[in-house]
Amino acid sequence: MLRWAVISLNWIGDAVMSMPALYAWRRRHPAARVRILSRPPLHELWMRCPTVDEVQTWSPTLRGMFLAARELRKWRPDGIVVLPHSIRSTLLATASGARRRIATYGVGRRWLGMEVRVPPSEFVHQQYDYAAALDVLELLNPPPAPWLRLTAEDRTAASWVTNLPDGPRLALMPGAARGPSKRWPAERFAAVAQTLARDGWHILVLGTPADREAGQRIAAAAGVRGHNYVGETTLGTWAAILAVCDLALCNDSGGMHLAAAMGLPGVAIFGATDPARTGPLGAGWTVLQKAPTRSARIGRTDSRARQWLETITVDEVVVACHQVWHRVGMRRIDR
Hints:
The chain is of the alpha/beta class. 38% of the residues lie in helices and 15% in strands.
């Protein structure tokens, strides 16, 4: 039986953007076994990916790399694909015992005997980087949308959402792991929440523990229709709550990609990053952006990116939410 290992990326959004390539690879090799090597806590995400057979967690410490390589060698993979650009992922693949070692572009990889694959320049979106590494570019026409398979425990933990009183449910995610240069101001999210709550929406605020203060502020602005679960959910429960919401509002973030993987339409607020490169996968999304230039290399506190974010007004976001809701949200079919 063919056995392939894939070293996962380390951010939620990047991991979700790699899933269409894995779905396509599975169609080409339906009998193969796929093992994902993931750092915690992304193993929760990969355990819910329907094309993955096994998830192996590993630590980037020297001891962690040694233990992960030893376990991989026991598994005897035919090949391994390295999706991150990190040198530690490269070294782990080199020590894996796999006969074929393939990677996206990265420093020194060819010197270590790895096969480097990159997509042609016309393939702009980041998902095609991973499709090229897995040699499935021709199968991504059109690309399959990412999706996750929830567990019964996930659905039970999120069941309270379906028991909310009448009214559409907005999943509002104010965070972005890459810092302030990708975060629309929390006070503006709070103003949107207040307006939509008055229009009859339930506002479910979600995110990581780093966003707790913003979550409290936004939920308070929505009054009795505000529900703050920032930092209070597992990744599986977060996904399950998204699955029973009607619309997402977020920054360019992992939460945006997780919402897209759960089939949500939404409104995404971009600063200076390029939506053609990292925009949400799947239908029903509107991107709001006013940056005159766009780049993947934006510093965490880039002042220009923050200024461009702040040119997007509360009224513009409220209007976009209503437009997406009336265009696709009201016809959304839950997975």
